[in-house]
Structure formats: C-alpha cells, structure tokens
Design brief:
Layout lengths: L2 H10 L5 H45 L4 H27 L7 H39 L4 H41 L2 H6 L1
C-alpha cells in the first residue's frame, strides 16, 4: 500500500476521523518498512561476519606456506571484525530514535542507509578476496583452467551483488519518498484532498 492508496482509504472512511485513520495507516506502513530493513540488515550482517571470520580462521589454520593465503586470511578476519564493530555501533545507535512516527521513519531510513553501505562493502570486498585467491592458485601450481573458472564465478558473484545493492538503494529511495510526502502533506492538507 503506497501513500496515495492510504489517502484513498482515508477519503472512503467517512464515519471515522480522517487524520486518526491516516496516522494509524502511516504508522503501520512505516513499521512494516522498518522491520523489513531491520530483518534484511541483520541477516546480511550475520552472514558477512560468520563467513569472513569463519573462512579467515579456517584458511589461517590450514595454510602452511602460501603468502597469498595468509594475506587472504588476514583480509577476511579484518573484514569480519569491521562488520562486527559496525553492527555493534548500529545497535547502540538505535537508542537515539524516539518512538514517534517521525522517529520510526528516521530509524528506518538509518537502517536502510546502513544496509546500502554494507552491500557496497560486500560487493567490493569480492575484488581483493578474488585477487588473493587467484594468486594463491597460481602459487600452488594448479591448472590455469581452475583460475579461469574461479574468475568467472567471482565475476558473476560481483554482478549479482550489484543487483542486490540496487534493490537496497530502491528500498531506501522508497523510504525517502515516503518521508518527503509526510513532510509536505500536513494533516490539514490531507483532509482537504
């Protein structure tokens, strides 16, 4: 349900106060958007933390002599720790938003902005990881076709993460549009439509 559909509902509800219906519908819409952004962000963060820290520890433990694999393990551990620290800061920052409609809207936008940031990090983190993996393959004298297949796979992953990033940007833009509509349509404006 978008903002215009909610306004239509308000206009159809003749026997109830328009602004109270409007406010409740807006609040539910904002809550829905906020929960959606919050849920996706939590899953993304946890996946990135577990994958980076887990792979970094595993690579460091099995590696015996490859410099590229040591660098890869270090890079993944640093990436995982960075996301973990960002998650802690994000959760601590949740306290600064009040529980009003405006506060929930700002909170939803903050989470959506953070999700866009995390998706950029995840997307471009593939580049150094891919380079280090390819170097480690070349160091180990593996057949070149393995490196080619891996390069194609990483290119496809990079492309897919670009699609994911665009999706998050679109969701953030929807929230910004809804916030702008709320700022420009005061209750007296809405009741006259």
């Amino acid at each position: 349900m978008d903002f215009n559909e909610m306004k239509t509902i308000w206009n159809l509800q003749n026997n109830q106060p328009l602004y109270s219906i409007n406010e409740q519908a807006l609040y539910e819409r904002i809550q829905q958007k906020k929960q959606q952004a919050f849920h996706i962000t939590q899953i993304s963060e946890l996946l990135l933390i577990i994958v980076n820290l887990g792979c970094g520890c595993f690579i460091a433990s099995i590696n015996k002599s490859s410099i590229s694999l040591y660098l890869l393990a270090a890079w993944m551990l640093v990436s995982g720790l960075y996301i973990l620290i960002s998650r802690i800061r994000r959760i601590q920052g949740n306290k600064r938003f009040d529980r009003s409609i405006q506060g929930d809207m700002e909170h939803a936008l903050s989470v959506a902005t953070y999700q866009v940031h995390i998706s950029i990090l995840g997307r471009w983190n593939i580049v150094p990881i891919g380079i280090l993996v390819l170097f480690s393959l070349l160091e180990s004298d593996k057949p070149i076709w393995i490196a080619v297949v891996l390069f194609i796979f990483l290119a496809l992953v990079h492309y897919a993460t670009g699609w994911e990033h665009t999706l998050y940007k679109t969701r953030k833009r929807e929230l910004e549009t809804l916030q702008n509509q709320l700022k420009t349509n005061t209750p007296s404006d809405i009741q006259t439509h």
